[in-house]
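Sat 14:20. Reprocessing the chain from the morning session after the first attempt stalled halfway. Input below, unchanged.
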Amino acid sequence: MKNLVILGGGYGGINIVLGLIDQNLPEDVRITVIDRNPYHSVKTEFYTIAAGTSADKDVRIDFPEHEKVDYVYAEVSKIDTENQQILFEKRSEPVAYDYLVIGLGCEDNYHGIEGAPEFTESIQTFGRSRHTGMAIGNLKAYGKATIVGAGLSGIEAAAEIRESRPDLNVRLLDRGNTVLKAFDTKIQNYVEDWFLKNDVEIVHGANVEYVEKDGVCNNGVCFVNDVTIWTAGVRPNYLVRELPFKKDEQEKIVINDFYQVPEQPNTYVVGDCASSEHSPSAQLARQQGEQVVEVLMDVFKGNKPSKPKKLKLKGTLGSLGSSEGFGEMMSQSLTGYLPRVAKSGILWLNKRH
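Finished this time. C-alpha cells:
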C-alpha cells in the first residue's frame, strides 16, 4: 500500500482530496490528510472573525469523508524528507509517506521589526484570528485599532472592523503612496474615498520602526494604540523554509512544471509554499490543486504525466464591509455593490462544493 500524505487542508490540499476522490484511485493508494484543525478553514474570510462579523462555523467546512482517506489532526514539528516521514509535536508516532503534497500556506512576515511578533495580532490562522477577534471585541468605546499594511488583507480587515465597531478609532498604516498597489488607479481611489467617508485614517509613507504593547512607532512618531493587527506581508510556513530544497527570493520552494520538487520528485508543492509567477491567492492554490490531481493520477497509473496547461486566473475580489467591494475580473475593474455580491456568491459556491 502506497501512502499519499497531504500536508495542509487549505485551498490546494482540499482540492486535491476532492479531485482524487472523484477519480478511480488505484487499490494500492491511500490518502492521509494532516492538518492542525479538524476542518477546512476558509482563510479568505478570517478578517470577518477578527472583526466579529462572522461566527467560527461560518468560515469552516467539514473535510470530506471517504473510505480511502485518513485524517491526522496534529501540529507538525518537522518534515523529515530524508526518511520520508512527518513528525509531530505531541504525537509520538510519525506518519510515513511514499508521495507528499505540501500545502502548508504562509505566516506573517515581520521583516525583522522589533516587537512585531510579540505585540501584534494576526489573521493568518484560525486560532490567531479568533484571538484578534477577542482583542477587538473587548475594546471599550473609542478604543484605538491600527492595521499595519494596506494590501488586500489589511483593507478588508480595516473596513470590516469599521463596520463592526463604528465607535472605534481605526488607523491604517500604508507603506506606499496609495493603498492596494497591486490594483489599478480606479480601485485605489475608490477604496481611499471609502475610508475617507467612513472615518478611517490612512497614513501613507509609513515606516514602522518598532511595535510596543500600547503603540506603534512610525517615522519617529509613536501612535498610542490598543490593538495592532499585522497584515504587512507573508512568508512560507517555517516548516517549509527549513527544508533542504532550492528556494526563490521569497523563500518559496522551486518546483518543476509538474509541481514536483526536482531534488525529490515524489514531493509536490502548491499554494503559498510554491514558487510561482502569480501572487499568492486561494484561487491560485485551487487551480494548482486541480492540476496536481491530474499529475498524480498519471504517476499512480505508471504513466508519464502530461504537462499542465498554463494557469489562467480570473481576477481578484475584495470587500469593504457587507455592501461594497472592489475587484478585477476578466481585465475589468469593478467597484461598488456588484463585486461584493460576486465575492459572496463565490464563497457560497465553494462551500457547496
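The longest strand covers residues 29-35.
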